[in-house]
């Protein structure tokens, strides 16, 4: 707001208010008297500018944004631990601890014989990343197999500042109340492992509300996550009785997004020394990044569209690619329009 104000400008304005028959050159008495005062005045303007920035949700830093959010009953979502599947040759005990890499995991619940839920002892997305053989922290008699496999409920980092800012600004657009759309959206997002949700009014058997969710890794949720959200929103036992988050009378069905496999074929012109063998991994990363951007938009989109123009323009940024044309999506030279509850997943890429 005060970008146009500078120390030099303030000093010049102060000196202009002094009579012209007074010596105002640098080193003169009046110059030396006004200079320190002008410096303090400039610092005051600078502080005021910062204060004004912190007063508004669209410009506030994280510290002050959190204070503003409190007035709206909004708090940052805390980091949560990943819930993983552990597969063993024997039944281990609840509380047994294992390590993989730099992270430790503790057994929390039995799923079936030799299969257990493990909770990462370190919160955040780190717990979603590793797969492989676990090492018991304490000796377990008869243990021959210990494998960390599926992510059942993704761990999440503390809510990023811009996501919190978006929630704060959106809180002025609609009032969350009594099971309206915003109420469901806000409350579902407060549950662990959620990356997106869509709400539908349905007439489907006993159900009158359907929630379609995507996990925090922007993938199809596990059955464990779906069951966890179902229980939190409207438990299967005594559905519609208001025993969960859903209001009484709302019979809710929770489903996961479906994945649509996207195969891509390219006609690529390479620079000298480059070919598909050298660029395939970069193409895979490019497609994965593009699809991730689309999946982050799923919640607020009626349908996702995989666009050839987007793919080709991004491909031109890959080293060695001079030109690309005749791109096919699932064998068709046209954009792919996905079902409203579908997200794209990279399939086979080929020339």
From TrEMBL:
<feature type="domain" description="Baseplate J-like C-terminal">
    <location>
        <begin position="262"/>
        <end position="347"/>
    </location>
</feature>
<dbReference type="InterPro" id="IPR058531">
    <property type="entry name" value="Baseplate_J_M"/>
</dbReference>
<dbReference type="InterPro" id="IPR058530">
    <property type="entry name" value="Baseplate_J-like_C"/>
</dbReference>
<dbReference type="Pfam" id="PF26079">
    <property type="entry name" value="Baseplate_J_C"/>
</dbReference>
<comment type="similarity">
    <text>Belongs to the Mu gp47/PBSX XkdT family.</text>
</comment>
<feature type="domain" description="Baseplate J-like central">
    <location>
        <begin position="176"/>
        <end position="255"/>
    </location>
</feature>
<dbReference type="Pfam" id="PF26078">
    <property type="entry name" value="Baseplate_J_M"/>
</dbReference>
<dbReference type="InterPro" id="IPR052399">
    <property type="entry name" value="Phage_Baseplate_Assmbl_Protein"/>
</dbReference>
<protein>
    <submittedName>
        <fullName>Baseplate J/gp47 family protein</fullName>
    </submittedName>
</protein>
């Amino acid at each position: 707001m005060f970008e146009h104000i500078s120390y030099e400008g303030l000093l010049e304005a102060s000196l202009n208010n002094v009579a012209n028959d007074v010596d105002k050159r640098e080193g003169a008495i009046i110059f030396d008297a006004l200079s320190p005062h002008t410096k303090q005045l400039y610092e005051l303007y600078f502080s005021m500018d910062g204060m004004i920035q912190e007063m508004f949700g669209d410009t506030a830093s994280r510290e002050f944004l959190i204070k503003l959010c409190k007035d709206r009953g909004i708090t940052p979502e805390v980091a949560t631990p990943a819930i993983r599947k552990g597969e063993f040759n024997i039944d281990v005990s609840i509380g047994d601890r294992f390590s993989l890499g730099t992270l430790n995991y503790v057994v929390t619940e039995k799923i079936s014989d030799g299969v257990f839920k493990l909770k990462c002892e370190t919160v955040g997305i780190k717990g979603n990343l590793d797969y492989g053989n676990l090492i018991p922290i304490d000796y377990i008699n008869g243990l021959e197999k210990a494998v960390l496999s599926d992510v059942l409920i993704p761990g999440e980092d503390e809510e990023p500042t811009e996501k919190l800012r978006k929630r704060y600004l959106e809180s002025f657009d609609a009032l969350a109340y009594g099971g309206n759309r915003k109420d469901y959206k806000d409350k579902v997002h407060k549950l662990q492992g959620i990356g997106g949700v869509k709400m539908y009014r349905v007439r489907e058997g006993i159900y009158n509300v359907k929630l379609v969710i995507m996990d925090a890794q922007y993938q199809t949720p596990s059955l464990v996550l779906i069951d966890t959200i179902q229980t939190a929103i409207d438990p299967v036992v005594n559905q519609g009785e208001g025993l969960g988050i859903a209001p009484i009378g709302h019979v809710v069905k929770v489903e996961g997004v479906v994945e649509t496999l996207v195969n891509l074929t390219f006609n690529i012109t390479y620079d000298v020394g480059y070919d598909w063998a050298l660029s395939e991994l970069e193409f895979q990363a490019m497609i994965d990044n593009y699809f991730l951007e689309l999946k982050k938009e799923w919640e607020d989109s009626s349908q996702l569209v995989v666009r050839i123009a987007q793919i080709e323009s991004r491909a031109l940024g890959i080293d060695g690619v001079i030109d690309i044309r005749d791109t096919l999506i699932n064998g068709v030279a046209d954009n792919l329009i996905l079902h409203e509850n579908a997200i794209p997943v990279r399939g086979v890429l080929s020339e």
